[in-house]
Amino acid sequence: MKTTRKCRSLWSVGLNLFALFFSITAFGTSYWCVGTQRVPKPKCSKLRTHQCIDYGVNETDPNKVVYSWETGDDRFLFRQFHTGIWLSCAENIHDESEMCRSFIDLAPPSEKGMLWLSLVSELLYILLLVVGFSLMCLDLVRSSNVIDGLKLNAFAAVFTVLSGLLGMVAHVMYTQVFQVTVSLGPPDWRPYNWDYGWSFCMAWASFTCCMGASVTTLNSYTKTVIEFRHKRKTFEQSIREEHAREAFGHFRECSLHSISKSLEVYSSQTPTSGRKTPIPADSLDLSDIGASLGEEQC
Asked: Tens of pLDDT along 9-26?
């Protein structure tokens, strides 16, 4: 099914809008990676009697020692955490709040440069998406002018492709920084197990929509160029046919004019009277005429 240029522009704008929404949401949230952290159980108190270890002395008999038989993972709590580009937050084992720290401070010194490069790439990715979205909207508004539309399509495709490449590089670099931080980060932060969260999925969904928008924009540009060239070729062919018909008509008129002029010249050279001189019948010898005819036939 053939699609019009306006429909292709609407597809590009829609995909770019989704890419922009997903990228901003992923950039501002802290659920790129989620998991659990293993922390020692706190000491039991009057306010906290569960999920704790009692190291104290029996209240009824101070000389009697109370032993804890918890070993292995039973001596630890597993609290949920989530990490993004900016922050890393984890559950507070003492209350229902969360404790958040800057992920830039948690990253090893050897990875801070790559993390900052990832942040800059993410910002440029969003900025180029905004530029591409603006150009696509401008192309949608000025869809009547084909030449201006082609220029806007070309620039929008270039900016969208560049933004997609920057987004891919930024996502890959952040993933590498996080994996190194899991191994070399602070001991009290290192995850016990982890996986990628919904923010990470939205970031790659944004990249997918961005590349889809760029492909759609390039497709629209290519189809418009092909249609424009086809229309131009058809127009030039019709012009050549019209010129050929005009030349044929002019040649025909010139030929008719030349023939009529020749006839006029011939008629002007004939006698003005236009009547033939009669020949007397008695002067004609029929035998001579028959002999002459016989000689001509021989």
From this structure: 788 889 999 999 999 999
